[in-house]
Every structure is written in C-alpha cells, then in structure tokens.
Design a protein that fits this description.
The chain is built from 11 helices and 17 strands. With 401 residues, the chain is of the alpha+beta class.
Length: 401
C-alpha cells in the first residue's frame, strides 16, 4: 500500500465538515463532539482513539489519546493535538480560542449511557442533544471520491465471486469453504472488519450457507441467518456439509479502505429443482424493477411497498425476505463505511432517495427446508435510476464437478 493510500484528501474532509457545520447551524447547535469510530474516520481520516470537535463556524479540532503520532500522520485536518483525558476537553477548547458550547451535538444513537453521563459532567452548563440523524444524512450521499472506492470494492466482490466454483466441493463443510473464500478476499486487501451501527449487530465477512441451513433464521437484521458454528455466534456458516443440487448462498461484504460492497450470488453443485430456479428468476425481475423505479425523489417506504406487491403477485408473499411474523421489513439498505447506512428501503420509511446515495438491494426468497435464492448488488442512485456496481452474472452458477 502506498504511503498516502487510504488517507482521505484534505479537500474531501473540508467538504464534509462544511456540510456538518451547516447542519449545526440549521439545528442551532454550538458544535458537535464526534467519538464514534466510523464517524471519526469519515470526518477526520483516522480511526485512532480520540475526539473531534467541530464548531458551528471555524476550524475543526482533532484531539487524540492513542495513538497521537499515527493520527497526526493519517488525518489531513489542520489542527491535531494530543490529549490525555476527556476531562481536559473544555480546557483545550478554551486554549484554542473556542467559545464553550451551550448546545452540544453528540452521536446519542450509539453513545453508551455511562459515557453520556460522563460527558454531561465534563460539559457542565451545556445541553447535549442527539446529532446522529444529521451525521447519517450527510454520510448517506457519497462523493465521487467515495464512489471510486466503492467501485473498487465491488470489483473485488466480483473477483471473490469468480473464485467460488474452485472452492466448492461436495461434502465439505460450509465453514471450511467459507475459510477459503475469506482467505482469498483477505489476499486482495479485504480489511477484515465489517462495521455496523445497529447496537448488538456484527458480521464476519458475510454468510456462506447451503440448503436448509441457509433458511435458518437468526437475530441478525438480515433475510438470511444460518445455523452458525455455535450459539455464541448464532448466525452464518456451520459444520453442515454442502450437498449436490441445493442452493449455496454467497452473501459477502467486501470492505476496501473502509468502504463496502454488499454482494450475493447463488451457486449449486449440479442442477437445482425448477421451483428454486423460478424463484430466483422472480427476484431478478424485482431487482430490475427497482433499478428503474429508484429515482431521486422517490420515497424509500413507497419503493418497499412496490417490491412487496411484486413479490406477492409472483406468489412469494409468504417467503419474501424471511419467514413468519418476525421476517425483516426491508428490501435494501444504504452502504458506505457501515453496512447499515441511510437510506433504508423499508416499511414506513419517509426518507427520499437522492443522487449519490449508494444502496444494496437484496430481494430474496427463503424456503424452509430447501434454502435461499435471490440476489444482492450495490448500486448508486442516479438521475436515470440505479447504476449497478460490479459486473458478475446474476444468474445461478451451476458447478459441474
């Protein structure tokens, strides 16, 4: 990796912080203190431990506990200082000429309660309010710089997909095949960590599952669950052995320099029953309809309802995006630095699509006792509809060996 590879350009950070300051002004806040790792990387180009203070006007200040020298090398912000304790933040703000914030925005969607109380005691006299919604809206629109990184991530998803037939072997366990896939992805530069914002959610690369195992539900906000290797994980690949003529799900994230491509393909060793082939074709038709209809200005919730109606018309209402009353109520989600970004193509959502949003659409059918079929691709919202990132074939790949 080159010396500056993965470091966000100063011009990019300046644009992001300008948007953040406009949001602060719109909400009549004095400033915001950013501490969540992904938000910190987005606005400061480092994930080292520290605090980023952005006033409603003027220069941002990055205060770093560990590691200061590394953060200073990684961040293209003008002001980066060393700080040993959060308790010293008001003092260092004063020393740098900042007015004490009376209304302070923080990421209350992810900030633990104990830390919230700690910051209340540090900023005595200030009112701390939730600023996470505004931060997530800013992050939802991807710049040309971000889209370039996500296109590269999608290209790597294609490469992983192309190697899958080599890794498949009848009688091998799901987890053994997953290990081969993940090792190859790592060799391409996959960062290993897949970040999610939702509390209690986590993912290790993705899901590789076969047959009935893929249809097993789990706690994860995903249409697929999987048996997993133990209750301590409760999702994903298991010790179940891959058999012939059953759908094998490869639902993997490629994370490149922070940015995500979410990607699903179906494989089979030998032919699949017509029922599964037909269900997969129906999901491809729904994906194509989404590509045309997901235009700027479209309400995300309305798009969801359209897709639900299409699935019902094709006879898959009961098995579309899960099974039973607790099935998930979305067909797509924003991706970027995290797997669960705005917008959500979900029931009741009022957020409108905007040009530059990047969305993973994943229409899938979950058939109990048989498996999962469907598709997932990452797309950029454009004035002409969705532009797909990645080029691999959407059709089921039949491996003949």
């Amino acid at each position: 990796m080159g010396k500056n590879q993965g470091i966000t350009p100063a011009s990019e950070l300046q644009t992001r912080i300008a948007k953040l300051q406009q949001a602060l002004q719109d909400k009549n806040l004095s400033g915001t203190l950013i501490i969540q790792k992904t938000d910190l990387f987005y606005f400061a180009s480092t994930s080292q431990q520290g605090w980023l203070y952005v006033p409603d006007n003027g220069e941002a200040l990055l205060m770093v506990f560990k590691d200061y020298e590394r953060a200073k090398a990684e961040s293209t912000l003008a002001q980066v200082v060393s700080l040993v304790s959060a308790k010293k933040i008001p003092d260092i703000l004063a020393a740098h000429g900042y007015v004490f914030p009376t209304q302070l925005g923080m990421e209350l969607d992810v900030l633990p309660v104990n830390l919230f109380f700690q910051y209340q005691s540090i900023f005595t006299g200030a009112t701390i309010v939730d600023f996470s919604y505004e931060i997530r809206l800013i992050r939802a629109i991807k710049s040309v710089y971000e889209q370039k990184l996500m296109r590269q991530a999608a290209a790597y998803s294609d490469q992983v997909c192309s190697k899958m037939p080599e890794f498949l072997e009848e009688g091998q366990t799901e987890v053994a095949i997953a290990g081969k896939v993940e090792g190859y992805a790592r060799s391409l530069g996959h960062q290993g960590i897949v970040r999610m914002r939702l509390w209690g959610s986590e993912l290790f690369y993705g899901h590789l599952m076969s047959g009935a195992s893929a249809a097993a539900p789990s706690y994860l906000a995903s249409p697929t669950g999987g048996d997993g290797i133990s209750p301590s994980v409760g999702q994903g690949a298991s010790f179940n052995k891959v058999a012939r003529s059953e759908p094998i799900l490869l639902d993997y994230v490629f994370a490149w320099q922070g940015y995500i491509s979410d990607h699903t393909r179906i494989f089979s060793i030998g032919s699949l029953p017509d029922e599964l082939l037909q269900a997969h074709e129906a999901m491809l038709e729904i994906q194509e309809a989404m590509r045309r209809q997901a235009l700027p200005g479209t309400l995300s919730g309305e798009l969801y309802e359209t897709m639900i109606s299409m699935a019902a018309d094709k006879g898959y209402k009961e098995y579309f995006m899960g099974i039973g009353e607790r099935k998930i109520r979305f067909v797509g989600h924003g991706v970027g630095l995290e797997l669960d970004e705005f917008p959500f193509i979900a029931k009741g959502q009022k957020l409108t699509l905007e040009e530059g949003m990047v969305i993973a659409f994943e229409p899938k059918v979950i058939l109990p006792g048989k498996g999962v079929v469907g598709i997932e691709n990452t797309h950029v919202v454009t004035d002409n509809g969705l532009e797909r990132l990645g080029l691999s074939d959407d059709k089921i790949t039949i491996v003949k060996h």
